[in-house]
Design goal:
Number of domains: 1
Structural class: mainly alpha
Helix content: over 70%
Strand content: under 5%
InterPro entries: HEPN_Cthe2314
Number of strands: 0
Largest sheet: none
Number of helices: 9
Shape: elongated
Protein name: Cthe-2314-like HEPN domain-containing protein
Organism: Paenibacillus albidus
Length: 238
C-alpha cells in the first residue's frame, strides 16, 4: 500500500520476510482445513486462523513502515534542524512518523505472536501475568519445560538481536510514557549548550535498529510457525 502511495513498485517478498509469510500462510491453510473437517464448533480453529492472518497483516505493516521511513530518510540532507528547508522539514517529519510507527509495531507484533503461542501450546501465561508480553511467554516455555526445541530457537533469536531490541525498547518506552522519542536527543543537546544548533539524531543508526527488529520478528515468526506446522501435521497423522 505505502509503496504505491510513494510511487514505488509493489513489494516482492524474499528472504526472511518471504519465509515468515509462507510459514504463516501454511498455518492459516491448515487451520481452515481443520475447520472444514471437524466443523470447529467451539471456534478455536477459527480464532487461531484469525490471529494468524492478523500476524500476516502486522508483519506487512511493519515492513511497510520500515520502507517508508527509509524512503523519507533519503530526502533528509541537512545535519541540523535549523538548516532544513520547509520541504526537508516535512520529509523529516514523515520519516519520524513512519520510524516511530515501525518500532512500536515491532513489539506489538511480538506480543501478538506470544498470544498465539500461549493458546497453541496451552501455556497459561495469564496465570503468571495478566497482561503478558512475548518475552513472558518465552519464559513460560522454560518454566513448564514444554516444546523446548522451539523455546530454545526463539530464545537464541532474541539473544542474537539483544542490542537493537534494547535500543528500540528504550525509544518505544520513551515515546509511550515520557516524551516523543526523537526529542530525547534534543533535550540532551540543550543541556550541553542552550543556544547551539540542534543536530539530528543518528537517522541511519536508528533505521538499522528498525531493520534488525524487522529481521528478528521475521525469524521468530518463521521458527514459531515452522515448528507449529510440523507439529500439526504430525498430530494429524497420529
Amino acid at each position: 500500500m505505502l509503496r504505491i502511495l510513494l510511487g514505488e513498485p509493489p513489494r516482492q517478498n524474499s528472504g526472511v520476510l518471504a519465509e515468515a509469510m509462507d510459514n504463516m500462510g501454511t498455518m492459516a491453510a491448515l487451520l481452515r482445513h481443520e475447520m472444514n473437517r471437524l466443523e470447529d464448533q467451539d471456534h478455536e480453529f477459527r480464532k487461531l486462523e484469525i490471529w494468524t492472518r492478523g500476524l500476516i497483516s502486522s508483519l506487512d505493516e511493519l515492513e511497510q513502515s520500515w520502507f517508508a521511513a527509509a524512503f523519507y530518510r533519503k530526502l533528509v540532507i541537512a545535519g541540523f534542524m535549523d538548516d532544513m528547508t520547509p520541504q526537508e522539514q516535512g520529509d523529516y517529519a514523515r520519516y519520524v512518523y513512519f520510524y516511530k510507527n515501525g518500532f512500536i509495531r515491532v513489539f506489538s507484533l511480538l506480543d501478538k505472536l506470544g498470544t498465539v503461542l500461549n493458546s497453541l501450546y496451552d501455556l497459561n501465561t495469564s496465570k503468571v501475568k495478566a497482561h503478558f508480553s512475548y518475552f513472558t511467554v518465552l519464559r513460560q516455555f522454560h518454566v513448564l519445560k514444554e516444546h523446548m526445541f522451539l523455546a530454545d530457537q526463539l530464545e537464541q533469536i532474541k539473544s542474537s538481536y539483544r542490542e537493537p531490541l534494547q535500543n528500540l525498547r528504550k525509544r518505544r518506552n520513551a515515546e509511550i510514557h515520557y516524551m516523543n522519542a526523537e526529542m530525547q536527543d534534543d533535550l540532551w543537546q540543550r543541556h550541553r549548550g542552550l543556544h547551539d544548533k540542534i543536530q539530528l539524531e543518528d537517522l541511519d543508526g536508528h533505521l538499522e535498529d528498525l531493520q534488525q527488529g524487522l529481521d528478528m520478528a521475521c525469524k521468530s515468526l518463521t521458527a514459531a510457525f515452522g515448528y507449529s506446522n510440523k507439529q500439526w501435521r504430525k498430530n494429524a497423522r497420529a
